[in-house]
Amino acid sequence: MIKGLIFDLDGVITDSAEYHYQAWKALGQDLGIPFDRAFNERLKGISRMESLELILEHGHQSEQYTQKQKEILADKKNIHYLSFVEKMTEKDVLPGIRDLLKEAKQRQLKIALASASKNGPMILNRLGVQSYFDVIVDPSSLIHGKPNPEIYMKGADMLGLQPSECIGLEDAQAGIEAIHRAGMFAVGIGDFIVLKEADYIVSDTSQLQLDKLLENARK
Ligand code: B16
Ligand code: MG
User: Which H helix or E strand runs over 97?
Assistant: First the structure.
C-alpha cells in the first residue's frame, strides 16, 4: 500500500533545471568549456561541487584549480542561479503539481522532498508550496549523492514509512536509479529515452494523475 510521495525538486516541482543549465553553461563559457544539453543531462540531480567537477573534467581542467578556487567557481554559478530564482513566483510551480500535492494531502498521503539542492527549502517557500511537505531531507546531512539511494531512503525514514510504501518522482536518470536502489516505485517525468528505466513515465508534469500513479505502483 502506498502511503507517501517523495519528490525531487528541480525539473519536477519547478523548472529550475533550466536555470541550473543556464548558470552552468555561462560558467562553462567563461572557462572555455562549452557544453550542450546532452552533456547537461549528466548534471541533473548531481550536487553543486560534483557538477563543477564533471564540467572541469569535460574541459580537461580538473587539475588547474585548487579546492578553494573550485569553491569560488561554484559560488559564482550559485549567485547566477539565484538571480533566476529571485524572479520566481507562485506561478512557477509546474503544471499539475499543486493539484497533485493537494490531492495527495486530502488522501492523507505523506509528502517529502528529496532534492540535492541546498536551495530547496527557499525555493519551496518562494513557490508557496512548503506547507504540503511533511519533511525535507537536508542534502548536507548526506554522505552520498544521487544515484546513491541515501536521499530517498532518508526521506522514507523521516516520513516513518518503508521504501516499498513510497513513490519517488524524478526528472533525472541519476534520480531514477536512486529511487530504484532505495526499493521504491519510480516515476520519470521528461524524455522517455533518458528515463527509460523508470517504472512509469510521463512527458511532463501536467500528465501526472494521482490515481494512475497509485494504480501502477500497486501492479
Ligand atoms: P544547488 P534536484 C539538483 O536538484 C539539481 O538537479 C542539480 O542540477 C543541482 O546541481 C543540485 O540540485 C544542487 O543544487 O546548487 O541548488 O545546491 O534535481 O535533486 O532537486
Ligand atoms: Mg531534478
Answer: helix 97-106
To the query of whether residue 75 is one of the catalytic residues in this protein, the response is no
Name the class of domain 17-85. mainly alpha
Distance 119 CA to ligand 1 centre (A): 8
- Mean pLDDT for 11-26 is 96
Mean pLDDT of the region 64-70: 97
Q: Please state the length of the chain.
A: 219
Report which DSSP code applies to 20. H
Kind and range of the H or E run holding 17: helix 16-31
Counts of helices then strands in the chain (DSSP H, E): 9, 6
Cell readout for 71 is 569553491
pTM metric for this prediction: 0.93
Ligand 2 centre distance from Cα of residue 199 (Å): 17
Task: Give the DSSP letter of residue 94.
Answer: P
> What end-to-end distance do the CA atoms of the chain give, in Å?
11
4-14+92-218: CATH topology is Rossmann fold (3.40.50)
Percent pLDDT > 90 in the chain is 98
Question: Cβ(114) to ligand 1 under 6 A?
Answer: no
Q: Residue 89: count other Cβ atoms within 10 Å of its Cβ.
A: 9
- The structural domains of the chain, with segments of one domain joined by +, span 4-14+92-218, 17-85
Strand order in the sheet with 200-202: 135-136, 110-113, 4-7, 166-170, 185-189, 200-202
